[in-house]
Each structure stands twice: as structure tokens, then as C-alpha cells.
Amino acid sequence: MTKKTSGQNRWPCRQEKMSRRSMMAATAAIPLSVQLSADAAAGNDAIASLIERARQKNAAFMRGDMDRWFELVRIAPDFTLMQPFGGPASRGFDASPKRLADLSRYFREGETHLEVVQAYASDALVVLVMMEHQRAEVGGLAAQDWSLRVTEVYCKDGTDWQLVHRHADPLVRSITLQQAAILARGWLEDK
Fold first, then answer.
1. Cα–Cα distance between 55 and 151 in angstroms, integer?
2. pLDDT tens across 142-158, in order?
3. Rg of the chain over CA atoms, in angstroms?
4. Contact predicate 84/168, CB 8 Å
5. In contact, 19 and 2? CB cutoff 8 Å
6. Distance between CA 61 and CA 134 in Å, rounded?
7. Cα 79 from Cα 189, distance rounded (Å)
8. Which phi and psi angles does 139 have, rounded to 5°?
9. By three-state DSSP, how is residue 5 classified?
10. Which residues of 6-15 are buried (b: 16+ CB within 10 A; e: fewer)?
11. What is the distance in angstroms between the CA of the first residue and the CA of the last residue of the chain?
12. pTM recorded for the entire structure
């Protein structure tokens, strides 16, 4: 396990000392469709397995089945989340029974369909770019469309893959420059 140093985060699943930014840049430069390593077939199997796991865990999450969701996801200790509701990135994940029960009550009766836009892979890193098309009751609101644009980053840890980063936003449909400016300012539009 690599040690965290001030100013830089290290993924515990990597033996080499490489910053997240460097790792992301290196991975982004290697699209799956043109990867030519000898492990390409194994990489394709890993991606297919992670996509299927993403489908299953997303469906469980939107149904409020957090026990099943937690069986499917392996969250890294230094996991970062950029939530669809905005705000600063959170770090780590509280997997306590109370937190999972709270999430189970917050997300209910969801139906999902996962659309994979692109996948990138190296021997130790996989990035999935997806559209999560979903309808659910969230936070006590009536069922509605809760589709998200999502990027998930997985890092190899021994024989399994850990989720190290998730970024989700609700901007599945295009918005105007003026709407984006209002969001950027953090203001609601005056009526």
C-alpha cells in the first residue's frame, strides 16, 4: 500500500508512486478501442465484468436495496464522490448499517437502464463513461426521471477492482448558457 503524502493522494491499489492526475492522464490517452497490449482480452473481460457489476449495483441502489448494492461495490479507502446535487467532493464512504439504512429509505422503487458511452482501460485502471437512465422515488419526492451522466474510475486491487472515484450530474439534457451561468453562480433564477 502506498502512503499518502501531503499535497498528493495515492491510490492504495497501486504499487508505483503516481499521482491521480498523472494516472488519469495516462489512462485517458489509451482508449480501449485501440489498446494493443498482450492483456487486451483480459482487459476486455475486466471491462465487461465491471459494466455488468455497474448495471447490477446501480439497479440495487435505485431500488433502495443497499445490502445488495454493498455486496457488488468495492469502495477504495480514499474514494472520492462528486454528487449529482453539487457541492464539494466527498472523501471515503460511511458503510455503517445506519448510513446504508438511511440510503435505503432515501432511494426507492427505482428502475434503471445503463448506457455505456465509452470505456478506457490499462492493466490496473478502468474508466467507465455512462448514462444512467433511471426513474425512482428519491428523498420522498414522487417517482420521476433521475437520469445522470456518470464517470466511474476503478483501480485493480489484487484480483478485484475498487471504485476510487465517481462523478455524477443530472445534465443529461442540454441546458442554455444562461441556465449554466445561473447554476455556476449558485443562484435560482428570479421569476
1. 13
2. 999 999 999 999 999 99
3. 18
4. yes
5. no
6. 11
7. 34
8. 60, 30
9. strand
10. eeeebbbbbe
11. 54
12. 0.78
166 CB neighbour count, 10 Å cutoff: 22
CA triplet 147, 173, 47: central angle to 5 degrees?
50
Residue 66: closest CA among 58, 75, 76: 58
With residue 89 as reference, give the H or E element that holds it: none
Alpha carbon 64 to chain centroid distance? 17
pLDDT, tens digit, for every residue of 11-60?
445 544 445 554 444 444 444 444 434 455 556 888 999 999 999 999 99
Q: Where on the phi/psi map is residue 86: left (φ > 0), alpha (ψ -120 to 50), or beta?
A: left
Total number of residues shown for the chain: 191
* Cell numbers linked to 83: 454528487
Q: What is the pLDDT of residues 73-104, one digit of tens each?
A: 999 999 999 999 999 999 999 999 999 999 99
Locate cell 488519469: which residue?
A: 24
Q: What share of the chain is helix, strand, coil (3-state, %, to 5)?
A: 30, 35, 35
